[in-house]
Write a structure and sequence with these properties.
By secondary structure, the chain is of the alpha/beta class. The chain contains twelve helices and six strands. The chain binds adenosine-5'-triphosphate and magnesium ion (MG).
């Protein structure tokens, strides 16, 4: 559904400069499809996602069989941007054995007794698996940056908490991700970019629909008041940590179906870039297979004789 050129527009992988303003959360889809009208476009996106997920499932089988690489998918977003929907869709296609989702909330007392990367490192996917982080160590340069008073609970060594402090956090993150990539974990990061207006609509929809009310928490509206501070934090974070080895993808998220199609496409593309093949069987193993086959065949003849 998307050309490589279109997908490249969402990718942020270095150069330092990044302006969130240049990314439209309400992007209406690729030009050649815009005349279709909303319903037709939606239907196309849906069948497209279904196909992309089949490809993803096949790619995951190979990831699992090869047992060398793993894929870490990081999701960051404002509330109601559609993280849960993305996870549900991506997960729906893949073998549950090869996939795990970990959600990161405000840190526990035990977690605060360690450095800020610790709890995420413990939850990394093993070789062959896809691990999805629903929020991550990036909260440490987002919510914590918007609410620096949270640092007081982190038991950090004394020091200033200015620009240098935050760039050191970016450095730690870049170094961790570089290490992971060098050792076989691919790192793909999505920022689901929803507009403030669309978030308002989604919050209202949650409040007005009894079946969705459980999803709403009053605190979400309080966080919304810090919208501009969050956008600043996202912008700086993406500029500093969008790297060649672990790029950010800024996904227009006002249209859920488009966001899902883009994410599915990027994930298949990323695993596809590994060009995985089924593991090869050595001549010895092939001999063993032949002999096992013969044994099984002999068994049926034995059984018939009995
Ligand atoms: P939902 O879609 O169900 O609301 P959620 O990811 O928003 O999912 P919540 O339990 O509502 O889950 O929110 C988790 C909260 O934990 C967020 O407000 C997030 O900012 C906060 N959080 C996550 N990591 C940290 C951290 N390292 N320090 C402080 N707060 C954090
Ligand atoms: Mg929430």
């Amino acid at each position: 559904m998307f050309t490589k050129k279109t997908l490249a527009r969402f990718r942020v992988s270095g150069g330092g400069k990044f302006r969130l303003r240049r990314h439209d959360p309400a992007w209406p889809g690729p030009k050649h499809l815009r005349d279709l009208g909303d319903d037709e476009l939606k239907a196309r996106a849906k069948s497209y996602v279904a196909r992309a997920l089949e490809e993803l499932a096949e790619a995951q089988e190979l990831l699992w069989a090869n047992d060398v690489h793993s894929l870490l998918v990081i999701l960051q977003a404002m509330d109601a941007a559609g993280k849960d929907g993305i996870i549900k869709h991506v997960m729906s296609g893949v073998n549950p054995q090869g996939c795990q989702v970990v959600s990161f909330k405000a840190p526990s007392a035990e977690e605060l007794d360690h450095d800020f990367l610790w709890r995420c490192v413990r939850a990394l996917p093993e070789r062959g698996r896809i691990g999805i982080f629903n929020r991550s160590y990036y909260e440490e340069v987002l919510v914590v940056r918007v609410h620096p008073e949270l640092l007081a609970r982190q038991k950090l060594p004394p020091g200033k908490r200015g620009g240098k402090f935050w760039s050191q956090r970016y450095q730690s993150i870049n170094a961790l991700e570089r290490h992971l990539v060098r050792n076989g974990t691919m790192v793909v990061k999505f920022f689901l970019h929803v507009s403030r207006d669309e978030q308002r609509r989604r919050f209202l929809a949650r409040i007005d629909d009894p079946a969705k009310q459980w999803k709403f928490s009053a605190g979400d509206v309080a966080e919304r008041a810090h919208w501009d501070a969050y956008m600043d934090a996202f912008e700086q974070m993406i500029a500093a940590t969008g790297t060649a080895w672990a790029p950010w993808y800024v996904i227009p998220a006002d249209h859920k179906w488009l966001a899902r199609a883009i994410v599915a496409d990027i994930l298949t593309d990323v695993i596809g870039s590994l060009d995985l093949k089924p593991p090869t069987v050595s001549p010895e193993e092939r001999r063993a297979l032949r002999s096992a086959r013969q044994q099984l065949l002999d068994e049926t003849t034995d059984l018939r004789r009995q």
